[in-house]
Amino acid sequence: MRLVATANVESGTILGKTVRNDKGQILLSEGVELNEKMLRRLLLLGITYIYIKDSVTEGIEYIEVLPDSVRRKAVQTIETTFQELQNDSKFDTSFVIEKASKRFKDLIRQLLFELKNNENLLTMLADVYTYDNYIFTHSLHVTMYSLAIGMKLKLTPKELEILGMGAILHDVGKMKVPFDILQKPGKLTDQEYDEIKRHPEEGFQMLRNVPAMSLIVAHCAYQHHERLNGTGYPRGIEGEDIHQLAKIIAVADVFDAVTSNRVYRDAMLPHHGLEILFAGSGTLFDPKIIEAFRKGVAIYPVGITVILDDGRKGVVSKQNMGVSDRPIVRIIEENGKDTDPYELDLSVSLSTMIVECDTTFPKNV
Question: Is NADP given among the entry's keywords (predicted)?
Fold first, then answer.
C-alpha cells in the first residue's frame, strides 16, 4: 500500500486501509473502489492522506502500534471525563478527575504495554481517522508521543505514569474555553487568543487539588506552553524552571498539533513536523528530548513515497528501530524510469539521504 494525498487520488483507485471515525465506525472499508463522491467526502471530513493499493507496493503494510479497540476505548475515556467537566456544573471538578484517575492509570498502563510490545516505531497517522472533537484525539496522541519519549529517556515506571497522566490532562483547561473559539476556522482576535492562552492556568487550577494525583500533573498542564528561552506562556518561565515532564509534553504537543488536521489548516507530514522541532532545538525545546523523540517516532511512515539524493524514488517498506530517519525503502524508480523493485536499507547505506516526500498519485496504479 502507498500513502497518497487524498486530493490527488483518481476515481477507480482501491482503498488500501480502512478509514474510521474516532468511535470506531467504518466510513470506508479497505478494498473499496473509490469514486469522486467518496473522495470529496473524505476531503470534507478533513482526511488529507489515505492509503491506496498499487502493484509495486504489494506486501507493504502499515501496522497499527495502537489497535483500533484500544484507540476507541482511550478516546472514549478521555471524552467522557472532559465532557463531564465541561457540561455538568453540578459535579465538583476535583471529584470528576478523582473518579477518572483510576481509568486513566489503567489506560496509561495499556498504552505502555502496546508501546513496549510493538516492534514498530510509533506512528499516529491522524489523517486516516476522522473525529468529532480534536481535543480528545489530540490528548491521546500527545500521551502516546510523550510515553515514547519517556521510554527512550529511560524514565522510571512511576515517572512514566505521571508523564502519561500529565499528557492526557495537559489540555483539560480548554474545557473552560468557549467551543466556538476552539473550533473557529479563521484567525482568532486578540481577545479570543487571550482566552485560549488561559487554558494552562485553568488546567492547573482544576488539577492542583485532586488528592489522588501528583502535583506534577497539574504543573504539566500549567507549563506545556512554556519554552526554554522564556517566550512561552502563561508565565514566561525558562530553562530549569520548567519541569522535565512538561518539556516532554511540549514537544509531543507541538508535533501532534502540526501533523493533525485542524479547522484552520491541513496536516503536515511527520518529517515537516520534526523540522519544526529541530528549528526550535535549544531555544524553545530541550535537544535531548527532541533526540529521544527522533529515535522513538516514525518520521517517514510506512507507505510514503520518498525521493533520495541520488534521484532514486522508492516507498518506505519498513522502519529501523532507533533511527527513524533511516528506514528501509523499496526502490521503484531510477534515472527517471521504472525499475524492478528492490529493497535499500538506509541504516546501512549511510551515504544516501531522503531529500523529499512525494504524495502525488502514482502513475503505475
Answer: no
Q: Which residues contact 348 (CB under 8 A, 6 or more apart)?
A: none
Residue located via cell numbers 531522503: 354
CB of 220 within 8 A of CB of 245? yes
Find out whether 65 and 115 touch, Cβ atoms under 8 Å: yes
pLDDT above 60: residue 130: no
The sign of the dihedral angle between the CA atoms of 184, 165, 45, 84 is negative
CB within 8 Å of 126: residues ≥ 6 apart:
137, 141, 256, 259, 260, 261, 267
| 3-state SS class at 206 | helix
Q: What is the pLDDT of residues 73-124, one digit of tens each?
A: 888 889 888 888 877 555 578 888 888 899 999 999 999 999 988 767 677 6
List, for residues 260-312, the tens digit of each pLDDT value.
866 556 678 888 899 999 999 999 999 999 999 998 888 898 999 999 999 99
Predicted model pTM: 0.88
Query: Which residue, of 255, 270, 296, is where some domain finishes?
Result: 296
Closest alpha carbon to 334 in 347, 352, 348: 352
- Look up cell 508535533; give the residue: 255
Domain with 333, as residue range(s), is 305-358
Partners of 21 in beta bridges: 130
Predicted confidence at residue 364, as pLDDT, reads 66
In sequence order, what DSSP letters do the residues of 47-98 get, joined into one string?
A: --EEEE--GGGTT--PPPSS-HHHHHHHHHHHHHHHHHHHH-TTS-HHHHHH
Burial of 208 (C-beta count, 10 Å sphere; 0-12/13-18/19+) = middle
Give the helix/strand (H/E) hosting 165. helix 157-168
Count CB atoms within 10 A of the CB of residue 252.
28
The verdict on 338 and 200 lying in the same domain is no
Asked whether residue 365 is assigned to any structural domain, the reply reads no
Amino acid at 83: Q
Q: For residues 220 and 162, give the distance between their C-alpha atoms in angstroms, rounded to a whole number.
A: 9
